[in-house]
Sequence to fold (301 residues):
Amino acid sequence: MPEAFHSLPALNALRAFEASARHLNFRIAAEELNVTQGAVAQHIRGLEADLGVKLFERLPRGLALTSEGRAYVPNIRRAFDLISDATLLLRPEPARLTISVTPSFATKWLIPKLPEFVAHNPLVDLRILASESLSSFQADGVDIAVRQGRPPFGAGLLVDLLFPQQIIAVCCPSLLPAGASEIAPAEIKDHVLLHDAHNLWPEFMEKAVGLKMTTQVRRIRFNQTALAIEAAVAGQGIALASRFLVAADLAAGRLVQPLGVEMRGTQDFYVVVPRKQRHPEPTQAVRQWLLNEGDETRLSS
Fold:
């Protein structure tokens, strides 16, 4: 160790000095450093004794730096900044990425898969922006989005198909007739139909089931697909949802398909990223992870 290092003051004393010089108050400095006020005062007395100079004037209401203290503090702050910069080079901060999705997509598909992503990508700090309204890549600081619709979504965007819109009916197993695996199409009218904001039941009944919707059918309406799905799990009726959103519930037996038909929709799900990205490497990592997870969901459902 160089000889000069032996004459350096203790690091904790220098931290106490820098915080006290910033606040000009031992009590506030102690709160910042999570130590007692007495410990800060002791560090300062020891530092002054070590240096052989007085760093603070003790006033009735607070502190004032002496001329020696004013000369000393800028260099101490620079030294702490150098230590901080050197540490960041060894432990880089995670890249902060914002992913824009709908609340139903977040609740039913994305959130259950996040722990595995976080475990394998410690240097990607994901912020989930879940909203029914369309978020802006520029104004909202979005790095990657899952959009439902039909391309093109705009110039300067890269688009990959994540899921086709495959609409199926789902309900709690207890709604099935005893010993049956499905509900007869003609008996659908006897059940409560759970609607979301997409209101696909009339189209589904006509195109997939081959029946017209009757006006007498009972309905409950929700503004989000995830709420309709949860109501179906609770046995409150039959919901319509994209197959991938209910894949986990079907696999776990919480939901079943009471009708052996599906409707191919026109509003597919896409992963969308700007061509010019703020953090290209982590953005591509998230994009590829989403696509890989999408492939796995389709293969298992």
Remarks:
- The first helix runs from residue 11 to 23.
- The CA atoms of residues 25 and 61 lie 9 Å apart.
- The chain has a mean pLDDT of 91.
- The radius of gyration is 31 Å.
